[in-house]
Amino acid sequence: PNLARAPPSRQASCAxxxxxxxxxxxxxxxxxxxxxxxPSATGITRALAADDAGTRSARARFQEGVAAFDKGxxxxxxxxxxxxxxxxxxxxxxLNLAMSCLRGGRxxxxxxxxxxxxRDARDAAPAQRESAVQGIAEARSHLGHIDAQGPAGTELYxxxxxxxxLPLDEGVDVEPGAQSVRLRAPxxxxxxxxxx
Length: 196
What we know:
The protein is an alpha+beta fold. It has six helices and seven strands; from the N terminus they run βααααααββββββ.
């Protein structure tokens, strides 16, 4: 197995100014609020009644997140959006969660949540998808990147956290600095490298 580490780029690659990106989060917040409050297409049933408390809690956490984000309290917004997502797995909440991480300097989390959003929100509006793509680029400008090659089915671990199975569609984003990278081949052989 071969590992390659790309040094972090320090040049920001977002095409829009930060204030423009912040403006894009408002329509997303509205879309999520509508999604969290919209009735089911089949109507309200007893099965949904049990979910009402969860939906109300998710909506409240989401609104707290929007308020905190608007005040520049990005860590509080991140926590509120994470709670909302835990209660109601709606992909649009991920975009707000990712933006909070990005503005709060949590680059790795931001990159992961933006990527998850792009995977989960297949019917997202083009503007929302573009915001996520730009967010990934901005987050990655602060991160390192590991590319690994090896036999199909080889597991990749970064600092003892499973990062994926080869072949990867793309490499793995990592915080700048030293990392321990371990590859475990399907036949059980392992290779560990320290990267810095």
